[in-house]
Batch of 3 targets.
Target 1
Amino acid sequence: MSHTARFWTVFVREVRAALRTRAYLGLLAVLAATVFGVARAGGGPTGGYVPTVIDLLVAVEVLVPTVAFAVGYRAIADPAARGELDVLETYPLPSWAYVGGVYAGRSAVLLALVGLPLATLGVHVATTAGPETTVFASHRGVDSPLLYVRFLALTLWYALVSLSLAFVLSALAGSRGRALVLALAGLLVVTVGGDVAVFAGLDGGLVTSETLGGALAMTPAGAYRGLVFDQVLYVAVPGRSAFVSGAVAVGSLLFWWVGSLVATELVTDAR
């Protein structure tokens, strides 16, 4: 059996385990209710795609990492606690194939949990927003379903990055108790800690007004937020320039995504 086949075996196992986990259905229902509730409370669906994104952005910044950590915080810690990783050392299964298979399986679950409610909301906007909302006067911009698709794609990428961060913390934990503690700490850092650190640096003089955008782009949440503004909101409003460099934001998300997965593989291999 090739390494690719072993990777696929681990992936299928993770997906089958997820299909038997009813908690994911509850998580999907809660996420869908929250997304629709926030959007309808702000009136976004009747205003169009861009107003809906504006209503959702802050909530999604918090919800997506929360769901990602819920899906991934025990992904490596549980097998380590059960001794499964020790048993796997007797099989011709490289750590990268194991970590990659588990990550791919959990990613499929996460993409479904995050993507289905947001995609359904997009369909809801398409069927409820009036034709006059193609141009929304309050923002002097042009609305488009393509902008919502961009928002959805960036959000799914943000979810995958958050999941990779949950994985490396799970690998470092090695037990269920420590995994929960590290997950809560990591979630706090991802959602608010990065911004707090940047603004603390601004107050202390380490970050200036000229470097503020770049500093914010170095955090996962800041990079995601900057890309949404750059590729979705400011595209719809002519004459506005992004406060975060798109290239820096993309590089930052790639760094956290790939770096976390490599770190997870190294930690798992060292166990």
Note: Confidence is low (pLDDT under 50) at residues 135-140.
Target 2
Amino acid sequence: MKKTFLYLLVAGMAFTACDGKKSEQKTDNPFFAEYNTPYQTPPFDLIKFEHFEPAFMKGMEEGRAEIEAIANSKEAPTFENTILAYEKSGALLDKVGNVFYNIKGSENNDSIAALAKRLSPITTKYYGDISLNENLFKRIKAIYEQKDQLELSVEEQTMLDKIYKGFVRGGANLPADKKDQLRKIDEELSSLTLQFGENVLNETNNFELVIDNEKDLAGLPAGVVAAAAETAKLLVRKENGFSQLKNQACYLSCSMLIIVIFVRNCTWDM
């Protein structure tokens, strides 16, 4: 199941001015245009925090329209007009979400965390409305039940199987009362998952290992030690001569483990 901000203009502005502002906003927001970058990588140098919320809201608006068009189509369900159309839906939301949540997981700050909390119930409802859309699931199920007669490629069969099972696991076959219960559970899980992620990230960012014995650095690359020593020179905490400088440490990556090293007395030669 696919999961992976239009600002209000100031009242009293002339109609033509509002149109001009909207046009300018859409042009300036990198998410509203094709990435003019190698391999379509996000242009991080152009993306600003204020671009995220409008892109999320616009992405959900477009996604809802696409899903409604599929679910309420008068045409008989086919792989192309249902499965493939569903797979292609929500492109803008995926586009902004991939960037936002990767940044949140690596460079989280108060503004990003606050936006994530505001978006959590909205996006949870959005995805819940899709996974529990009865008309949409009927069309997907109709195709799934005749998949052996459709002469689909291996890739198409995999896509159909993944999407159908995703809907089933997402509660599409549940009775109405159980669907309501599932929505409440999903909302709570979304909130708890977000909070857990923030707790882990904050704890990781606050971790520091103070080393005041040169022997304890045995085995570390010289470059790592030099970088940590340079960082340590910037630390002056009031109670003992140091002041913690957040997020400016030397990172030693060991598989999934990241160790932040603060060297207290770096007077030896390196």
Note: The radius of gyration is 25 Å.
Target 3
Amino acid sequence: MVEKFVLSADERATVAALVDELISDSETWDPLGRADRAASLAQELPTRLRRFLSEVKVAESDVTVLSNLPVDDDLAPTPVGWDAAAKTGAGSREEVVLLLCGSAIGEPFGWSNQQDGRLIHDVVPAPGMERSLTSASSSAGLSLHTEDVFHPCRGDYVSLFCLRNPDRIGTTYARVDTLSLSAALRDLLSSDSFTFHPDDSHVGVTLNAIDGTDERERRGPSESGAVLFGPGDRPYFRFDIDFMEADGAAATDAMRVVQRELSEHAESVVLSPGDAVFIDNYRVVHGREPFTPRYDGTDRWLKRVNLTRDLRRIYTANAARSRIVVA
């Protein structure tokens, strides 16, 4: 079940006022400083909203949707690619909405080699990327996956804030608790028989297909470990069929079983403007339905942020007090 919260008109106005305050506080454009300030201002979000998000965090709810968040009535046309959004600052006010709400459940962070090290990402289709294995794709769906499956600093939550979605394109997801796995298969998936690689959104850590084949040469940091881990009665989970491999035939077969189970148990949530979804990246894999982009300013447009429960884990990995993971 998706946990849902609809802001009242007064609560929406309170969020909008906090957005104004956070923007006015920033005399210079400093995304990391703004994130620090957002953590403080998030304590002033409507009480009912803060209590709801606190309960979501404690319960480790799988998928959570907030509705009726403020979106600018004069929203810019959907940018053609994330880099266009970065250059123009399109949707910058909505970035602050997501930053504030996200800070009530976790700590926002980014990656040095994703979208030029930006903290808040734009999820929009891009010409030439229609069938890529990144969020810039469109005509090819995104398979169900754990965000940044390869890295120990991957987010506890992935949050997507909808600015525009006229074609009602669904965000797909599957929960680990819905999988029907035998005890023997769970044991195998709990062993360190799998290697997880960086995905193609991490610029400079993978090479494209070699000589026109489907073979991929990996480079950059990878991590070996288990698919299932953590509490035995309610395990955590990581999986990305496109960016992992198994050690041996039995583990390879286990990957195929999991992929089939995920496909059979996939669900979908359709976000409307003003909706933000929080996906537990340790309990849920997510993806996206395919669609045909128009590149006319009306395409689907989301803002995305990764959230961690423990910012010091990132500080330790960086050996520096920075929210941007050096990957």
Note: The first helix runs from residue 9 to 25.
